[in-house]
């Protein structure tokens, strides 16, 4: 399973802020490491596919809120990195994706809701 590390997510985050704006800063590096570590830890104990891993990382980045700004953009980027790194692509429109990310960010539901949303919208590249 190919997963981005915390350093890669931080680079992605910084690039998104440069492109689209937002307040810079990492509130807590440990929260970003914990988000990535959550998926690695789960993979050690549970069999999961790339869709579930992408959903779990997206959810962890959303909920841990490691950055001052750009957490939702970084969560989406993490999701796409996991899918692409494992030979998958997301087939959904920008508004549909934005709605899913905003809903997940404001929800108490787990990553399984994101995975359920992803499954019919993912295919092999």
UniProtKB/TrEMBL annotation:
Domain Fido intervals: 4-120
Single GO MF descriptor: kinase activity
UniProt-listed InterPro entries: Doc, Fido, Fido-like_dom_sf, Type_II_TA_Toxin
Superkingdom of source: Bacteria
Identification of the protein by name: Type II toxin-antitoxin system death-on-curing family toxin
Source organism of the structure: Pontivivens ytuae
